Amino acid sequence: MNKRWIWMVRYLVVIVLALILAATLGEMDLFKTTRLGKSFNAARVAQFLGFGGALLVFWLLARRAAALISPHDQRWSVVRSILVPLATLVVVACGHAVLFLVLGPFMSKTWLPAYNWTFISLIMVSAAWLVAALFTGSASLEPWFGGARGGRRRDELETHA
Q: DSSP string covering 5-51, please?
């Protein structure tokens, strides 16, 4: 494996260990019986921290991998452009269940639909970002929101000054 990509193994080890620890600690009797209120226990906190940490490291892995892929290599340009949007979609979709671990015991039945619709909206936005990245060949949303035009305008002003 290229030394430039060896860091990826460390990220993957951290992700696997976080998942194993979250699952293991979440099933221990000590964590299940230690309560913080009526229905909130330490097992939920351990699972939230482990699964949430794994999702965060997964997203950081995708971000760093995308940054290391050369923008001039046409063979990998599609992968480079969709890596972060795809990882974001996965993290948001999985994040629904992970965040529910700590919010679920405190959430009333009237707030549950709002929570679900929030995540449905975030998943749809992430999916739209992925489709836009495939369509434009860039993970940046600047062309869609006028950021590139504003950047060009600033460059023009700086050259005339």
A: GTHHHHHHHHHHHHHHHHHHHHH-HHHHH-BSSSS-BHHHHHHHHHH
The CA distances from residue 64 to 87, 105, 106, 158, in Å, are 11, 35, 36, 31
> How many helices, marked H, and strands, marked E, lie in the chain?
7, 0
* Cα–Cα distance list, 116 to 122, 128, 139 (Å): 10, 18, 26
Cα 56 from Cα 35, distance rounded (Å): 26
pLDDT tens per residue, range 98-149: 999 999 888 889 999 999 999 999 999 999 999 988 887 776 765 555 554 4
